[in-house]
């Protein structure tokens, strides 16, 4: 639960040299990283350009199976300029390389989901993740066309204009990519390419920059604990270090970096939209003792007033309605103020909604 009184400070410039990490970062034995490198998960690599050009049947069959089983896949031939991706990664180095007091200008406020967070020291007092993040709001609404760039200017100042522009362009590219992926998911579920694409047009999404400092005790902590994303879809680009793990068949598997590809995983909101047919991806991130790790994560979310309710085609006698209607802001508030996101977030949120309505 939130802990506003916690005064612990996570300063990566100091923490990466600590031989003994603070107890708040030490995870229980049953959740610590695997002592041996986990097996590699052989997830499908989807040629998105091929799908959009008409190669539908072979792709949708593969994606349907992957999303029913573990909720994650790779996309290549995605149309995103890799030079832009590289610039965004350089921006991570630029921001997280700054002194803590400068980064704290964008400090995330209690109960908010955007801003700079040095671990989650302001929210929790145990099982803290070994990471820093910078999260900001993105909107596909044309009236908010420069929302990311304006955020950096207003919060961090003129020196961040260029970085803000890069993050704006990257977020726009991720929004466009996510709509194409929604065509793929809609087709694979049998509701047609327009169904989910139209639902997410004008999306109110979240962009996050992740920085995992090196840790001299990587076997004691986690960069990110086991959880399913409460959002709809996550589009992740890893650097070349590695550390992403997915839980499949009762054990953890690694997803090695591929600079040409994006990792796409299903989140809780889309699991609800699919009436439970497609599964949220249970994942975590581990750290290492040699080098920091970076990643770019775009969390696709519906427009704030959209009702999350599955298409009628996905409800039948064999697959009855599982989750109640809800809006994304309701689930977001639940994870920010009432519940720490894990593998049971959607189940607990559903029970919470039903109790409130009874």
UniProtKB/TrEMBL annotation:
Which residue numbers delimit the Fe2OG dioxygenase domain? Answer: 202-302
The coiled-coil regions, if any, are none
Entry's Gene Ontology BP terms: coumarin biosynthetic process; gibberellin biosynthetic process; response to molecule of fungal origin
Keywords from UniProt, A to Z, are: Iron, Metal-binding, Oxidoreductase
Q: What is the required cofactor set for this protein? A: L-ascorbate
Recorded catalytic activity of this chain's protein: gibberellin A12 + 2 2-oxoglutarate + 3 O2 + H(+) = gibberellin A9 + 2 succinate + 3 CO2 + 2 H2O
Species the sequence originates in: Olea europaea subsp. europaea
User: Molecular function terms in GO for this entry?
Assistant: gibberellin 20-oxidase activity; metal ion binding
* Lineage: superkingdom: Eukaryota
Annotated Pfam families: 2OG-FeII_Oxy, DIOX_N
Pathway note = Hormone biosynthesis; Plant hormone biosynthesis; gibberellin biosynthesis
Query: What protein name is recorded for this chain?
Result: Gibberellin 20 oxidase 1-D-like
Q: Which family does it belong to?
A: Belongs to the iron/ascorbate-dependent oxidoreductase family. GA20OX subfamily.
